[in-house]
Amino acid sequence: SVWPASLSVMASILAAPLILGVPAEIYFYGAQFSYFVLGIMVAIPIFAHLFLSRFYKLEISSIYEYLEYRFSKPVRSLCSAIFALSLIVHIGIITYAPAIVLSEMTAISTQLAVFGVGFIGIVYTTVGGLKGVIWVDAIQMLIILASLLGLIIKGSLNVGGFGEVMRINYQWGRIEGPSFSVIPSERHTVWTQMIGGGMSILALYNNQAIVQKFLGLKSLKHVYITAYISMVVSCLYFSMFVFIGLVIFANYSTCSPFLNGAISFANKDNLVPYFVLSVFQDYPGMAGLFTACVFCASLRFVIHYIKFSLI
């Protein structure tokens, strides 16, 4: 089915650092980063019609097989080895993100949390198979959606509603029109987000964990439909991360936790967990739901890349 597959594709790229990092980026530097959605909308159609269509018509089972077909077996082996090495580093970062959340909210050590994510991911991947991974992805994406919506709604109500969130951010210069500057030192512009962001999305989507899910669909038409649904879902989730950053800023516009010493500037990724504990302190279970959200993101990432990438 295209819907579970679309959610599963999104699950392959929705890692915990996005949940923690994008709101912090918006909090500190404003909403100019939100134009990253332009990169998503440019990259995914190119990925679908230029790359996926070729992979699907060749009836290959992996992108590494295509490299062997197009070039040679040594090229396939070299690219596979390079990706494996980069993946080792990437998985380390991904599994560290939920450890930050858990250590902020409980007494569990970061080392134990990292071990838990890795161990569960390995066991589940070994037992579950491709179909199990895709359906659990869809369920976990709904858990993440519930957590993000709860955070947005409660955080907005704290300051008087969505309109007040926008007003406060506009007043403090966090919401501004698109910047078309070509000055390289400017942090975010439409060009960097559309071109640079688009290139990063193309690189992210052109890996075995994502491509194999598309190749498992029953027709090229389903491949295209799934790609476009995943594009819409990706834009939706990214927009939610951006709005969470605006909500956090609206709540702390006059009492920054960084200025009052509650969070050090060296630990910016602690901003979202700190806000969750603050907002949901009178709502038992909600902080746990957010913790589950972050763990879902990290666990899925580990599962996908162990399962699919090293073929």
Automatic annotation (TrEMBL):
The chain crosses the membrane at residues 7-29, 35-56, 77-102, 108-127, 134-153, 190-211, 223-250, 283-303. Its main location: membrane. One of its GO terms (cellular component) is plasma membrane. GO terms for molecular function: symporter activity. Signal peptide: none annotated. It comes from the Eukaryota. It is found in: Cell membrane. GO terms for biological process: sodium ion transport. Keywords: Cell membrane, Ion transport, Membrane, Sodium, Sodium transport, Transmembrane, Transmembrane helix, Transport. The keyword Transport applies. It is a multi-pass membrane protein. The keyword Magnesium does not apply. PROSITE patterns: NA_SOLUT_SYMP_3. It holds the Pfam family SSF. InterPro entries: Na/Glc_symporter_sf, Na/solute_symporter, Sodium:Solute_Symporter_SSF. Belongs to the sodium:solute symporter (SSF) (TC 2.A.21) family. This is Sodium-coupled monocarboxylate transporter 1.
